[in-house]
Write a structure and sequence with these properties.
It is built from 9 helices and 22 strands. The chain has helices spanning 39-47, 95-100, 108-118, 134-147, 164-179, 192-198, 216-221, 226-231, 347-365; strands at residues 4-12, 15-23, 27-32, 54-59, 62-66, 71-72, 80-83, 152-156, 184-189, 201-206, 209-215, 236-239, 242-244, 247-250, 253-256, 267-270, 276-277, 285-295, 298-305, 310-316, 327-331, 338-340. 36% of the residues are buried. Residues 346-366 have low confidence and may be disordered.
Length: 366
Amino acid sequence: MKGLNANVGLKRGGFELDISLQLPPRGITALLGPSGSGKSSVLRMLAGLDKPQSGNIMQGETIWYDQQDKIFLPPQQRRVGMVFQDYALFSHLTVADNVGYGLPCTGRRAHVEQWLKRLHLNKHAEHYPAELSGGQRQRVALARALATDPDMLLLDEPFSAIDVSLRQNLRYQLKELVANTNRPVVIVSHHLEDALLLADQVGVMIDGHILQFGATQGVFMNPNCRHVAQVLGWHNFLPVRSIAGHVVSGAWGEWKLDEEPDVDTAWLAIRPEHLRIASAEQTAIKAEVMAIHQLGAIRSVQCRLLDGTQLEMHLPWDEPVPVAGSAVRLHLPLAYARTLPDCIINRSRRAHLVKQTSKSLHAGHA
């Protein structure tokens, strides 16, 4: 089976979507981004539920959509399984009938029983959706999507209605279900943990455009601009006002890097878990501790620099924590600090980003 290539555009009201997406024949791809960025619209266009206004979509050698040749395959001809955010189960049908909906009569019962067993729904076969918990309804929707043996599986916020305590187990179940299948899986999510735990690759969408796409760890550790970094959980951004060789500086102070940064550098960034209290011999930035918050196994230390810039530092539970109001010296390990542009993207710059992202993807798999 070959992968999918989509290059589509859509204008609706004041919103413009213009994306290029390449999916391998197998593996999980996560689309992350703020609400209104167009993630669910991409899924609906891949499923054939919405029609793009320009471009093309190809699954292997099969053309699903081509604006120039006036080709548009309806959903039933695309062999796509989709799990909607609200699950879209038929309230008047039992669990077994929901899972078997759309399957041929021959062998339907045995096939349904197989999927009920795989998703631990045997005891609920004769129940109705209203009698199920959120996690059970999610598994029914997933069983229904997989029972048709689709060429592609699309999941729109699959864990959004699930209690936090159940979300982790369902993630592992989904990972196990698709690990050995030769089909691409696309997940739209607001939860970074979904991408980190499930996805082989991730795309970050903002304002209708995929600004970065590549291997999951590579994208999370090397965002290509501030907007992408914010989506991926980077909280600390020091404004860069001048660059002199390897040194970047601002009202907060200065920091020497391993190499000279790009001329469009606007920020020096670091994730909260990588920011550290400096030892006596380390280079440091002076700050004041404003507040400390307990976040499970870590403590979040809120700090303020001399120019008012606020930074967040995550410390493990067994590491000493400074008291609120105390002065501290903060260290930014060069292995984890990144210089980033502001991310004002135009059409010509996006072409450059696609090339850079392709290199990043190959580097991530190396």
